[in-house]
Amino acid sequence: MEIIKGGVTAAKGFQAASAAAGIKYQNRTDMALIYSKKPCKTAGTFTTNVVKAAPVKWDKKVVDSGVKSQAVIVNSGIANACTGEEGYGYCEETAKAAGKALGVEAEGVLIGSTGVIGMQLPIDKLKEGVLKLAANKNGSAENGTLAAKAIMTTDTFQKEIAVTIQVGDKTVTIGGMAKGSGMIHPNMCTMLSFITTDAVISKKALQKALSEDVEDTYNMISVDGDTSTNDTVLLLANGMAKNEKIKYGTEEYEKFAEALHIVNEYLAKKIAGDGEGATALFEVKVTGASTKKQAKTLAKSIVCSNLTKTAIAGHDANWGRILCAMGYSGAQFDPEKVDLFFESKAGRIQIIENGTAVDYSEEKATEILSQPEVTATADIKEGTESAAAWGCDLTHGYIDINADYRS
């Protein structure tokens, strides 16, 4: 496996474009296109929030139907959530406009939206944007990056990655882009992720690989505890690598799933580290667990703790908050066996042993916690299972951004 330069255009046959449609933002791009020269099998995972945005309902229908797709149209600025029949109708209108402009089947056009909830999309501007996207599309890495930038809302940077693997004598590529900064607490934020691959793969294997991996990647991140109405991950496979078909349960499937995990984990961590107002990526590892479920529950509880997140923001080794978060997680463990460590590029330090504080240097702990990437590792010494979760520190910047988000 090799990480290469690029994003959604890295795989054979995929193109991208961006456009400034003036949907909500001014003087910046706010629409993106992903296009495949060949029809794609699709897989998807979606928000479990009962309140689902119109594009989520549209995309789930497309993915479940089995119809092949050749295009994804994404807009930023307005989420098209809580918009009723009119909002859902705009998905259909957008798909038809894309189908006509690109010469593809409208029934297979996928839609993504992110931004303010409750506002109706200016559909005429959206349709004009579709025409611009169709005219500007190409397969360059630059266009892939521009597409990744166009879907940002409060994100501070674009998020993209690509990897290659060998399947038989063929090179298979997986590329992806994502956005997310606030309203991030996925359960399958507004979190969107779009992944492309040129693999020849069965639809069952494609969906299995995505659904199983989401549980260990996107569903293990949190910025603010809010599960969005729009959370969507879409995976498109056009088969242009011409490898032997990858089927579920085979060695080739495991190799593909491993590569997909690299892509998803990278994008998930970038989303977590780019939380609104954040100054640090906060990683939590729980080791020595008796079950995977126990480890994941404990790790997620720590990374979601607002008191712990503010301690990280203050570079304060307030370990009691971590032990407290573990205690209310719902997972059973012996607090008198817990060892806790903080780690960053500034070094590693043990904070507690068997549930009580050790004699550590507060100055060194502060130095470690002052880095842009910080890891807390809790060893509960019960077994061999482990899990990781990702979040960020919680600063006043989060309030500044969200107090006037609509204005």
TrEMBL record:
CDD domains hit by this protein: OAT
Transmembrane portions of the chain: none
Any one annotated GO CC term: cytoplasm
Keywords recorded for this protein, A-Z: Acyltransferase, Amino-acid biosynthesis, Arginine biosynthesis, Autocatalytic cleavage, Cytoplasm, Multifunctional enzyme, Transferase
Catalytic residue list: T190
Subcellular location field: Cytoplasm
Catalysed reactions, as listed in the record: N(2)-acetyl-L-ornithine + L-glutamate = N-acetyl-L-glutamate + L-ornithine; L-glutamate + acetyl-CoA = N-acetyl-L-glutamate + CoA + H(+)
First-tier enzyme category under EC: transferase
GO biological process: L-arginine biosynthetic process; ornithine biosynthetic process
Binding site for substrate: T153, K179, T190, E276, N402, S407
Any Pfam family hit: ArgJ
Site (Involved in the stabilization of negative charge on the oxyanion by the formation of the oxyanion hole): T114, G115
Alphabetized InterPro entries for the sequence: Arg_biosynth_ArgJ, ArgJ-like_dom_sf, ArgJ_beta_C
Enzyme Commission number(s): 2.3.1.35, 2.3.1.1
Pathway info: Amino-acid biosynthesis; L-arginine biosynthesis; L-ornithine and N-acetyl-L-glutamate from L-glutamate and N(2)-acetyl-L-ornithine (cyclic): step 1/1; Amino-acid biosynthesis; L-arginine biosynthesis; N(2)-acetyl-L-ornithine from L-glutamate: step 1/4
SUPFAM superfamilies listed in its UniProt record: DmpA/ArgJ-like
GO MF entries: L-glutamate N-acetyltransferase activity; L-glutamate N-acetyltransferase activity, acting on acetyl-L-ornithine as donor
Subunit structure of this chain's protein: Heterotetramer of two alpha and two beta chains.
PANTHER family: ARGININE BIOSYNTHESIS BIFUNCTIONAL PROTEIN ARGJ (PTHR23100), ARGININE BIOSYNTHESIS BIFUNCTIONAL PROTEIN ARGJ, MITOCHONDRIAL (PTHR23100:SF0)
Family: Belongs to the ArgJ family.
Biological role: Catalyzes two activities which are involved in the cyclic version of arginine biosynthesis: the synthesis of N-acetylglutamate from glutamate and acetyl-CoA as the acetyl donor, and of ornithine by transacetylation between N(2)-acetylornithine and glutamate.
Name of the protein in its database record: Arginine biosynthesis bifunctional protein ArgJ
Organism the protein comes from: Faecalicatena contorta
The organism's taxonomic lineage, starting at the top: Bacteria, Bacillati, Bacillota, Clostridia, Lachnospirales
Gene name tied to this protein: argJ
